Amino acid sequence: xxxxxxxxxxxxxxxxxxxxxxxxxxxxxxxxxxxxxxxxxxxxxxxxxxxxxxxxxxxxxxxxxxxxxxxxxxxxxxxxxxxxxxxxxxxxxxxxxxxxxxxx
Length: 104
Description:
By secondary structure, the protein is α+β, with helices and mostly antiparallel strands. Helices cover 33% and strands 29% of the residues. The chain is built from three helices and four strands. A four-stranded antiparallel sheet has the order 2-3-1-4. A hairpin with a 5-residue loop joins strand 2 and strand 3. Helix 1 runs antiparallel to helix 3. The chain is globular and about 40 Å long.
């Protein structure tokens, strides 16, 4: 699997609005994309920073979502709330574990 990471900062007092847009608009749109496997939107209220991770089945799916403008379109939905342009990077998911995978 592959991961796109986006980072940036939300304007002061706009965090709740950004979270609501992510839940109400970005998530449903992402679910309709080929190869989409998950999304995580993390926020730090104290700093205003966010980290958005989207997980894709294949590198081709991840890159297609970027080249067809999907990713930029989704970030544009919260663009007026962001205190500067977000930065993006791509990764291969090399290790994955969940609570059920941890030996006691």
